[in-house]
Amino acid sequence: MNNNRRRNFRSRQQKSNFLRRRNGSTASSSFNNGNINFSRNGSMNNSHNVEKTMQKFQQLAKDAQSNGDPVLAQNYLQHADHYLRRLNELAEKKESYLDRNKISENQNSEDTLSEKKLS
User: Fold this and answer.
1) DSSP 8-state secondary structure symbol assigned to residue 13
2) Residue 107's domain spans which residues?
3) What is the share, in percent, of the chain residues with pLDDT greater than 70?
4) What is the pTM of this model?
5) Domain presence at residue 35
6) What is the distance between the alpha carbons of residues 74 and 81, in angstroms, rounded to a whole number?
7) What does the angle CA 77 – CA 82 – CA 84 come to, to the nearest 5 degrees?
8) DSSP letters spanning 50-114
9) Structural domains in the chain (count)
10) Bigger pLDDT: 62 or 28?
11) Rounded to 5°, angle at Cα 11 from 10 and 15
């Protein structure tokens, strides 16, 4: 075999979706204005996933503390605190959504009752 011989490789098409154009714009356009338009797969809108992630960081903090690394433990606790705030935010949104639906259902039932009385 001749190891000094140069091989000619054909270039492949880029398989990454990172730079692929979507709707006539580049993927970087979904990152406009800080975190406001940050595109995610929606996993942090599910309260179960957020709670699970929070518990994971709490466990990592306990493990780091038991291994004698207080700095890393504090870092993990800060991450867990972030997910706790996110969990509370999701619970608050859900509660307000349920309250709005309850109010609209009450108004709809009152409207139908008043219509029945008028006819």
Assistant:
1) P
2) 44-118
3) 57
4) 0.54
5) no
6) 10
7) 90
8) HHHHHHHHHHHHHHHHHTT-HHHHHHHHHHHHHHHHHHHHHHHHHHHHHHHHHHHHHHHHHHHHH
9) 1
10) 62
11) 135
